[in-house]
Amino acid sequence: MLNVPENASETKLVNFAVANGTRRKIINFLGNGDRSTREIEEIVGKSSLNFHLKILKDAGLIELEEEAVKLSEYGRNFLKGKKESNPEEITDFSQAKPIEIASIRQVLPCIADASRLRISANITPPLGRVLKLLVTLFQRSSYSDRKDSLIIQKGEIITTIYGSGKVSIRMVKNENEAKQELERLKSTINEAIAKGEAPAPREKVKVNLMEIYKHLPQTNCGRCGEQGCYSFAIKLMARQAALELCTPLKEPEYVNNQEHLEVLVNYI
User: Which residues contact 115 (CB under 8 A, 6 or more apart)?
Assistant: First the structure.
């Protein structure tokens, strides 16, 4: 039976399912034929595999039969639609133009720390689909297909670039520091564009347990299923839990924490 989302709630479930890189990798892998859970485990790892499969199944994208996994009819149609609607992936900067940073247009206190600032600016022209290639330019960064955004971490400062051209910088001390970060950003990107090709993959950055724990809410609410945030950090480090399980991170006061952790978990 075809499981097709018929209302906003079901559509939201599908969008959540495909917003995660591991789950997209599973769907694309299944696009070449039915697989066993062991085969899927070999390409995405054992940690959180059952968690990801359950979300894909609940969204109606896959079917599970004992140790066999296959795309549902809806899942096949969904994957086919994605392939038809997405143009060929850009693999270099040959069509990208050098960027300029427009003047800062908004300066506000950070929600998480009123002693720091959050600054908005714009990149012209917008980077569009080239944006995802920039992930290899920065020591700690993470690209989101769902948000069409690149998050860059540098110490406590979080910079988010959107495909539309919007740039947001959080946790800067003052406007001058923001301008320096924007200038550094422009120079790094334009240097890559001048070379006309995507940079080589960056080296893996070491992430330690306390760095993960530091950015968790530390409320010990237990909504993730663990006794506290420290236990949850251990599970994240062991890749036995998904960041999405920490629901307090979705609250506005933890927006900086969420963005830091989205970058860090990519390096575990």
Answer: 109
What 3-state class would DSSP assign to 88? Answer: coil
Cβ(108)–Cβ(134) below 8 Å: no
Q: Which one has a higher pLDDT value, 15 or 74?
A: 74
**Across all residues in the chain, what is the average pLDDT?**
84
For residue 147, what are the contacts with CB-CB under 8 A and spacing of at least 6? 162
Checking 239-248 for CB contacts under 8 A at 24+ apart, the result is 239/45, 239/47, 239/48, 239/268, 240/47, 240/48, 241/47, 241/48, 241/51, 242/20, 242/48, 242/51, 242/52, 244/16, 244/20, 246/216, 246/217, 247/223, 248/217, 248/219, 248/221, 248/223
CA distance 218 to 214: 8
Mean pLDDT, residues 242-254: 90
Please answer whether residues 149 and 143 qualify as being in contact, where contact means their C-beta atoms are separated by less than 8 angstroms: yes
C-beta contacts of 230-235 below 8 A and 24+ residues apart: 233/209, 234/209
List pLDDT tens digits, range 39-78: 888 777 777 888 889 999 998 999 998 889 999 988 888 8
Q: Is the pTM of this model over 0.85?
A: no
Q: Is the pLDDT of residue 199 over 80?
A: no
